[in-house]
Amino acid sequence: MSRSLFWLSDAAWQAIEPHLPKNQPGARRVVDRRVISGIVHVLKSGCRWCDCPADYGPSTTIYNRFNCWSRRGFWTKLLDALAEAGAVTKSTAIDSTYIKAQRSAFGGKGGARRRPSAVLVVAGQPRSTP
Hints:
Elements: H1 10-16, H2 32-45, H3 59-71, H4 74-85, H5 90-93, H6 118-123
Helix pairs in contact: 2-3
């Protein structure tokens, strides 16, 4: 079974590398190029973080790095820097993967709701029993 993995090109990596956070505390880091390639793979393919191929590194590392960098505004700063350099345009770089939706936006139980008939409403039928 052949998997199609996403890897950053040398030109893309040279554009991104200067904007990466430096001197981060913690354990020895997985190579940033592999992690960013893994993040892009997950976002492009739509797979779950835990299903990210091991070629990119541990899936928890990929998710944690994406989450941490998102909270710190790294992706927005990177997009601004790349747009300023002319490497990417903002209008083509933004898509629905960045837009948050409420949980109920994905749907739920459908069907018609049962409403009381107009006759019962007019008659003033009590809503509860005494």
